[in-house]
Amino acid sequence: MKNIGFLSFGHWTPSASSQTRSAGDALLQSIDLAVAAEELGADGAYFRVHHFARQLAAPFPLLAAVGARTKKIEIGTAVIDMRYENPLYMAEDAGSADLIASGRLQLGISRGSPEQVIDGYRYFGYAPPEGSSDADMARRHTEVFLDVLQGKGFAQPNPNPMFPNPPGLLRLEPHSEGLRERIWWGASTNATAEWAAKQGMNLQSSTLKIDESGKPFHVQQVEQIRLYRDAWKAAGHTRDPRVSVSRSIFALVDDRDRAYFGRGDEGEDKVGYLHGTERAIFGRSFAAEPDKLIEQLKGDEAIAEADTLLLTVPNQLGVDYNAHVIEAILKHVAPGMGWR
After folding, report:
1. Which tens digits make up the pLDDT trace of 133-153?
2. CB burial class (10 A; 0-12, 13-18, 19+) of residue 234?
3. Which of 128, 154, 286, 327 is the most buried (most CB within 10 A)?
4. Which domains does the chain have, with CATH numbers?
């Protein structure tokens, strides 16, 4: 059995070829797709966060709206860039959204990826201290965020408050019990995966990883997952961690699928460079008739190792088609893989 959800980047463009032509379209269609995915029996609705781009950005209004419209499906991010975040304000937003969703929030966070502008976090008022990097700043924001999510009091109360206070130091409100255990770290290296394990976060491993060995992407990814689980065990955590991977997977079951994706799947990993120097390896896409797709997916070691699979969706093709993409995997592929 495997948790299967979708991951949307929420792209929009004012083009006649797009069914998502504005930010409003992207947001409202994201809500509608989450509702449709829940009705189809999917397990999760996840959204990517990018700043200064025609994509989904501020996640918490969207997560709260999805939480109010759905009943069972997990609602998450993959990922929020912690370089841009005030961790205390974020904890209040996250607690509010999680309470609206009755404890279904699964927040993926990370150091972030290359953005649309240079050092965009500086426009948000954040800069690394002297001698630190933006990655150090993201991890520091994360540590503060995780700490306040525990719900412990830390702020000295006013002796003459406007409203009566409970005794002792005050915590942030609203506090959502259990949210601390539903935070995930998007790791692109083995070292950050091990750091996430020590911090007690679940692991999100995406379709991109820093190339640390020259091995195929899914092999490097499964090695990362196993190092993460070893570090989790060594840290002495008492619960079982969760691990997700993301893939672009399309089952060709009708003429629309063949028109969009029937030119053949990308059978090889790709290599690119982040920041001009860091060699990164990108996982392949899958597009084939269901029987062939099942055989291809059986060879992906990282999918087999993870408990959660996030299907990246082409959101600009509209809600109906993306619901069809999800349904095709659940109906025609998941049973053959033993996921359902």
Report:
1. 999 999 999 999 999 999 999
2. exposed
3. 286
4. 3-337 (3.20.20.30)
Q: Which two tokens stand for residue 227?
A: 């190092």
AA letter at 146:
L
Q: What tokens does 185 get?
A: 């770290």
Residue 86 one-letter amino acid: N
Residue 306, classed as helix, strand or coil, is coil
- DSSP state at residue 276: T
> pLDDT exceeding 90 applies to what percent of the chain?
92
Q: How far is CA 68 from CA 98, 107, 177, 183, in A?
A: 10, 17, 18, 20
Q: Which residue has the tokens 């915590």?
A: 171
Residue 7, helix vs strand vs coil: strand
The two three-digit tokens of residue 31, written as one number: 């809500």
Residues 6+ apart with CB under 8 A from 283: 207, 208, 217, 218, 221, 247, 269
318: left (phi > 0), else alpha (psi -120 to 50), else beta? left
Q: At what angle do helices 134-148 and 87-100 cross, to 10 degrees?
A: 50
The mean pLDDT value of the chain amounts to 96
Edge-to-edge strand list for the sheet holding 270-274: 208-210, 278-282, 270-274
**What gap in Å lies between CA 135 and CA 123, rounded to an integer?**
17
Please enumerate in sequence order all residues whose Cβ is within 8 A of that of 179, keeping only pairs 6 or more positions apart, or say none. 94, 95, 98, 103, 105, 107, 149
pTM of this structure: 0.96
Instruction: Please tell me the distance from the alpha carbon of residue 139 to that of residue 135, in angstroms, as a whole number.
Output: 6
Rounded to whole angstroms, the Cα distance separating 320 from 54 reads 21
d(CA 237, CA 241): 9
Distance between CA atoms of residues 203 and 222, nearest Å:
12
Two structure tokens written together for 142: 């994360």
Burial class, 290, CB count within 10 angstroms (exposed 0-12 / middle 13-18 / buried 19+): middle
